[in-house]
Structure formats: C-alpha cells, structure tokens
Design a protein that fits this description.
This protein is mainly β. Helices cover about 5% and strands about 40% of the residues. The strands form two sheets. A four-stranded antiparallel β-sheet has the order 1-8-3-6, with no helix packed on it. It has a four-stranded antiparallel β-sheet with strand order 2-7-4-5, with no helix packed on it. The longest helix has 4 residues.
Amino acid sequence: MYVTARGMRTSAPPHTDRQDVLVVQMEGAKRWRVFTPPTDGDVKPNADPFARGKGLDNLPLHVLLEGTEGRLGSELLMDVTLSEGDVLFIPAGFPHTTDTVEETTDADYDASIHLTFNIDTHVWALD
C-alpha cells in the first residue's frame, strides 16, 4: 500500500521493476506516466533492465521525456490519472513515475492511496 499526500510533484521517481505490476487506486487520485523500455544498452551494457532508476542507475524524467530520439530511446506510452476504483497494469522493465499534482484545484482528497500487486513471472521464468 502506498499513501501519498496530494500535491507531490514526484511521489515515485522514474524506475523499472523486476515484476509485472498491477495497481489498484483505492482513494484519491494519482498520475502515472509509463514509458517504453530504454534502448541505451550500448551506452549502459551492464544496466539491469529490471532495476533501472534504482541503486546507482540514474533514470531522470527529463531524459525519458526526450523520446525515441533522446539518450534513452524511450517513448511515453501512457500519461493517465487513476481515480478510485481504476486499475493499471505495468509490465516488468517498463519505466514509470507517479505524482499527485492536480491540474485543477477542486480535487477533494488529502491523500492518494493505491495498492500494488507484484506478479513475479520473470523471477520464476513463467514469461
């Protein structure tokens, strides 16, 4: 369970996960941006595609937003705000980031709450 105050510019910095992720928005709202996997393997051949943006690996949002012509070669797939009851699936290795900044000032929640279910298909070689 992730609880994030309303108005957080970055509630989760850009990163990838080893697991497929299923997100269920329980309360409030949260903006999700999901990108295609980076294609910078020639530049960072030792980067773990399932742990980008973690540890010593840097995965800044402004570089992801450069698009396919940028340094990471990643493209924005989805820019969506989840509301209560919405569900989102993110495959393993796809960079994503979240925020709770609202375009309007009439949002009626103090905190965003979502549940994340990790599906370890790559760990168990079920993919």
